[in-house]
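Please fill in the sequence for the structure shown.

STRUCTURE ENCODING:
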């Protein structure tokens, strides 16, 4: 039975760019409890790159041939987006394995040599991203460690999973995927943006499995949000005290389960997202990765993968856990990479940038061995702008673990 609740309105605010006047519809229907399409503002923030404040992003003089090649690539991608249908296969097979975790398959891509004395590196992407985002980092880490990237349910090569897409659900699915894929702990978890929140939750859910973390522009556990009345607030202002659904071990979502009105909105949002799939800095990714992003972002499954009506309740639990002790991560080796190039604009841009830095300082302080590293030449996607910094951070965390046993990892020349 379909229930349509009152839409929340996202309005423009002088203090934030998180407003578009679009409606966020909450659609409740069995068997997946609550389903929300994503407003256009969410799409703009997540899939369109923000204007950069840095200079010299591109060279002042251009060669005609590279510019022509880039133009041809963009035309081909745009044509592919508009020609794509739900049955259009991905542009190339998955580089890893598709592993069934209970009626839906997730893509797991592990490379590099496993060594008994070393932890395995697990890469967790930001919201709306998937394994190809690590294309500039994973090969470098594989030179000194076993490293795995994966696609969350509905993203990349992975099937849709059960809904709602709570963080608890995602953490359970990653744990199950690694177990069924034969990837044994201990792990060093690397999380970008929203993925930083996920790996924190993974570490608190499975503490014996995690020895260290690298957080790349990690999301805050009390981020700013536009409130229902249009004012700028925090996630904590939107907590309703609703119980977080239990993890589902079966019953993946089917497109036929989605109400028609929501499905139409999602298809429109997917087409919009795909048109800007490879704007800077993602144009630095390998061409295969860009082709895959153009295909993946045009799919309804990609939109469905981000639906979590219980985000605020889950973040409240993370905040409560963090408040229990001064060092929630104890002596865990932890490196937090924060951007050096601000992406905040407007009259409050400087204040927001300073707040962003303080948030990351606080995250680094969750461990007695926490360290904040500024990626001087990076915006939000440090793993694309300065992949060598992420590789070095992983190596440093690994060496921090190995020093106690007298070992040390090195990047082969």
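FILLED IN BY: designer on duty
SEQUENCE:
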């Amino acid at each position: 039975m379909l229930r349509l609740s009152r839409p929340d309105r996202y309005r423009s605010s002088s203090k934030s760019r998180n407003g578009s006047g679009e409606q966020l519809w909450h659609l409740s229907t069995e068997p997946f409890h609550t389903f929300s399409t994503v407003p256009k503002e969410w799409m703009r923030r997540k899939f369109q790159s923000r204007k950069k404040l840095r200079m010299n992003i591109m060279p002042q003089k251009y060669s005609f041939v590279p510019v022509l090649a880039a133009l041809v690539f963009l035309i081909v991608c745009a044509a592919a987006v508009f020609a794509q249908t739900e049955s259009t296969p991905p542009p190339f097979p998955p580089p890893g394995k598709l592993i069934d975790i209970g009626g839906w398959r997730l893509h797991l891509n592990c490379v590099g040599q496993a060594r008994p004395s070393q932890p395995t590196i697990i890469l967790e992407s930001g919201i709306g991203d998937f394994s190809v985002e690590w294309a500039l980092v994973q090969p470098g880490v594989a030179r000194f460690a076993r490293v795995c990237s994966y696609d969350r349910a509905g993203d990349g090569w992975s099937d849709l999973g059960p809904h709602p897409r709570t963080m608890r659900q995602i953490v359970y699915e990653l744990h199950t995927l690694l177990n069924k894929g034969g990837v044994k702990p201990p792990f060093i978890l690397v999380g970008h943006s929203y993925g930083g929140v996920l790996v924190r939750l993974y570490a608190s859910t499975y503490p014996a499995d995690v020895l260290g973390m690298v957080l790349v522009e990690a999301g805050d556990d009390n981020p700013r949000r536009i409130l229902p009345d249009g004012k700028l607030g925090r996630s904590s202002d939107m907590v309703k005290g609703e119980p977080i659904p239990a993890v589902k071990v079966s019953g993946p979502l089917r497109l036929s389960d989605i109400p028609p009105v929501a499905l139409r909105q999602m298809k429109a949002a997917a087409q919009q997202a795909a048109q800007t799939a490879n704007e800077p800095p993602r144009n630095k990714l390998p061409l295969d990765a860009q082709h895959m992003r153009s295909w993946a972002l045009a799919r309804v499954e990609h939109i469905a993968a981000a639906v979590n009506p219980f985000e605020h309740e889950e973040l409240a639990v993370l905040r409560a856990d963090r408040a229990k002790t001064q060092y929630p991560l104890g002596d865990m080796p932890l490196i937090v990479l924060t951007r050096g190039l601000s992406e905040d604009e407007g009259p409050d841009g400087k204040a927001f940038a300073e707040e962003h830095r303080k948030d990351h300082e606080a995250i680094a302080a969750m461990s007695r061995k926490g360290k904040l590293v500024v990626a001087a030449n990076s915006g939000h996607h440090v793993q694309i702008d300065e992949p060598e910094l992420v590789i070095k951070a992983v190596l440093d965390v690994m060496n921090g673990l190995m020093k106690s046993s007298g070992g040390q990892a090195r990047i082969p020349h």
